[in-house]
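sry for the spam today, last one i promise. struct tokens for design, 236 residues
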């Protein structure tokens, strides 16, 4: 399971979390491969049973370490979950922030297409991390919602909002649109399409794609509808 493919990108976060008391120095000093193995084990257990039902013994078995070793890395079971949530949230926000300037610089039609299609592709490549996030999002746990889901959602909203602002400045979108409502509607539409590709039971309900309906076709139609609704009106 590919979860966070470039572990070196998160070393600064691990160092900061050590300073914040979320993880111990012992864990920070592990080699990156061992850190990655432990993170994979935590996420696999969370995906299997739900983030709030992690069994620390099962995590140890998955990681090939002793329970005692885990307690030298994290203070307790809750600390293990706090570390995972915090690390994943920071890493996902870092990744989204890297893409923001490229998306906002594109013409809006191309930018929205890249935003949705790229998000689906990224979610499939980082399937473990995405599944963990979606478990947190749809299981309705208030604490995970505030710590993990809301910060990522606010970053996504911010990207869409900035894409629209730049499109208005370029004359691609009417100045008088309700910017905040439009931002939230596009966000909701993209979530509904993207999440159906990661959670089959959602697709059973939304019927977004199947063998006869490719997701790229749905993305194209959605972008067409959005652009038709917010583009400058032609003079009579």
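last one done:
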């Amino acid at each position: 399971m590919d979860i966070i493919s470039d572990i070196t990108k998160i070393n600064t976060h691990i160092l900061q979390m050590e300073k914040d008391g979320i993880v111990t120095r012992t864990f920070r000093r592990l080699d990156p491969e061992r850190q990655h193995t432990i993170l994979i084990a935590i996420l696999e257990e969370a995906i299997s049973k739900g983030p709030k039902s992690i069994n620390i013994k099962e995590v140890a078995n998955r990681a090939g370490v002793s329970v005692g070793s885990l307690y030298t890395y994290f203070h307790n079971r809750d600390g293990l979950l706090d570390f995972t949530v915090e690390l994943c949230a920071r890493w996902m926000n870092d990744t989204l922030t890297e893409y923001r300037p490229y998306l906002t610089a594109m013409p809006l039609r191309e930018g929205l297409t890249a935003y949705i299609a790229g998000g689906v592709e990224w979610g499939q490549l980082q399937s473990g991390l995405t599944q963990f996030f979606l478990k947190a999002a749809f299981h309705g746990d208030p604490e995970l919602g505030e710590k993990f889901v809301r910060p990522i959602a606010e970053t996504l909203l911010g990207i869409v909002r900035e894409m629209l602002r730049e499109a208005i400045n370029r004359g691609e979108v009417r100045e008088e649109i309700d910017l905040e409502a439009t931002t939230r509607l596009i966000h909701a539409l993209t979530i509904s399409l993207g999440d159906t590709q990661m959670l089959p039971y959602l697709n059973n309900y939304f019927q977004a794609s199947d063998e006869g309906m490719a997701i790229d076709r749905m993305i194209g139609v959605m972008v067409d509808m959005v652009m038709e609704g917010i583009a400058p009106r032609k003079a009579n």
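The chain has twelve helices and no strands. ok im logging off now
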